[in-house]
Specification:
Radius of gyration: 28 Å
Structural class: mainly alpha
Helix content: over 70%
Shape: elongated
Number of helices: 8
Strand content: under 5%
Largest sheet: none
């Protein structure tokens, strides 16, 4: 890790610029998803935009504190960054610790709470029909369209061909999503630790310009004896 004042300052500035880019990407993805109707759930879009804005605000605080070497800004930046690390690390560990049974329970709750329009969209996206044998007895799934049946059974010569249940298709997708979120959360939480250490080191360092030796306005070589 760089120990000089300038190196610590530049590293902290670069880290906060990276956070600003990540926050901008989060906002852009949320806006694009809403505009393209990829994400129709408004709370999800709102959460992504809020996370992006909060990350940009925190990064701006750290960026200004690093540029000006402002002790108060850097102190509050350290406190916020530490709290953010605790929250993000806990969520990442929770995502990685969710087992298959818990993932299926979450998917089951989402299927039961969702309306028929959501269930139809899931069936069309994953080419499946119904959730599982047990859940379909309690909550009747929407009728599978003829086009969906043709996708599941393109060969008409196969007898007793049925579309697979959506739980079989969702199991791998949900597991991949949890693992991806968990590892990404762990990665960014460790970058926050690096930012915390850099900020603490940079805050305790002395600005070299404050202790420069006084020099003559006219160099000594210009004087004649």
């Amino acid at each position: 890790m760089c120990g000089g004042f300038t190196c610590s300052k530049n590293s902290l500035i670069a880290l906060n610029i990276l956070y600003i880019l990540v926050g901008s990407i989060l906002i852009s993805v949320a806006v694009y998803g809403r505009a393209a109707s990829v994400v129709s759930n408004l709370p999800i879009v709102g959460v992504l935009i809020a996370c992006g804005i909060i990350l940009i605000m925190i990064s701006m605080l750290g960026l200004l504190g690093a540029i000006k070497h402002h002790q108060v800004m850097l102190f509050f930046y350290m406190v916020i960054l530490f709290l953010l690390f605790l929250l993000q690390f806990s969520v990442a560990c929770a995502c990685l610790g969710v087992n298959t049974e818990q993932q299926e329970q979450m998917a089951e709750q989402g299927w039961n709470k969702g309306g028929n329009s959501t269930r139809i969209r899931v069936q069309d996206t994953f080419t499946c029909c119904g959730f599982s044998e047990q859940i379909d007895k309690e909550h009747a799934p929407p009728k599978c369209e003829e086009e969906l049946m043709l996708k599941c059974c393109p060969d008409p010569n196969i007898e007793d061909c049925k579309c697979p249940k959506c739980m079989n298709k969702l199991r791998s997708t949900i597991s991949y999503a949890f693992k991806l979120c968990g590892w990404i959360g762990l990665f960014f939480s460790f970058t926050e630790i690096i930012g915390l250490v850099l900020t603490r080191r940079y805050r305790n360092q002395t600005h070299p310009d404050l202790y420069l030796k006084a020099t003559a306005v006219f160099p000594r070589s210009n004087f004649t004896y």
